[in-house]
Amino acid sequence: MTVDVWIPAGTRPEHRSLLPPISAIHDLPADGRLPARLGRGQFLVAGFSVERITQVIQRLDGLQVVQTLSAGVDRLADKIPAGVVLCDASGVHDTSVSEWVVMAILASLHNLPAHVDGQRNARWLEPATEADDLEDATVLIVGYGSIGRAVERRLAPFGVKFLRVAMHSRDGVSPPTELPDLLPRADVVIVLLPLTESTRGMVDAKFISRMRRGALLVNAARGPLVDTDALLASLLAGQIRAALDVTDPEPLPDGHPLWSAPGILITPHVGGWVRKRLDRSWRLVADQVGRFSRGEPLLNVVVEGY
After folding, report:
1. Whole-model pTM?
2. Which DSSP state fits 167?
């Protein structure tokens, strides 16, 4: 069975070569206006421009699968036609994002931003406050999926204790309804939830008020999961600390008060931005095309937005 596979323009030769021999590869036009019809395409590999992908979907005949290169599909999930399967890239970014989380936690607890400022200004500053370490700390993972499991594996050697929450509870993993009881127990709260209508704004003033004073909030998922005004108010009051790879709005505008809030570390959505990301992504794509051609179940099928 030959599968007509449409891939982003500029896909590297080494990634194209990973696709199985049954693939009839078609390159999406790089620039300019798309033609009215692109022709047959059962399998579409989606780039990161949602507007462009929705235009492509409308121009393909016989489309059956859209495979993203990102783990989050919040901007695309409601734009997929009935009868077309959407698959995300869950698992591809586990290593890089979980490493970012560990980095952000350690940097925040050990006051690294202040020391970097001291180096930049060529000044040997006496620490204003003592740092914290992770031994015997309690870490609450809110959104215990593949990235959450990867974070846990990397933090376990530090001697921490774990609490786990997911939208669908299971053994050892609590439902969100238990957050009011779990939040006061945590030294570090890591947010890894998908962005859906039910999770948007979940980290609100009430959520934050239940966190232990001095606790660290880490968001490596999506900015709109967190109420920015509520977070800012808590930071200014010295109630909690925060490490963010995502913000709302995003990009965070120049001069936004979050930039200068006390106790915050911000990076510009770089948790998954590593050199190996495309190698991992295209190995997943190749596996998915093979599965589709053989009539086998696809991986990472999106249901209810994630």
Report:
1. 0.93
2. S
Q: Which of 242, 289, 232, 224 is nearest to 108 (CA)?
A: 242
Q: Is the domain covering 94-266 a CATH 3.40.50.720 domain?
A: yes
Between vectors from CA 102 to CA 96 and to CA 104, what angle results, nearest 5°? 100
Parse the chain into domains and list their residue ranges.
3-92+275-294, 94-266
What tens-digit pLDDT sequence spans the chain (306 residues)? 899 999 998 899 999 999 999 999 999 987 667 899 999 999 999 977 777 899 999 999 999 999 999 988 998 989 999 999 999 999 999 999 999 999 999 999 999 999 999 999 999 988 888 999 999 999 999 999 999 999 999 999 999 999 999 999 999 999 999 999 999 999 999 999 999 999 999 999 999 999 999 999 999 999 999 999 999 999 999 999 999 999 999 999 999 999 999 999 999 999 999 999 999 999 999 999 999 999 999 999 999 766
| CB contact at 8 A, 253 and 277 | no
Topology alike, domains 3-92+275-294 and 94-266: yes
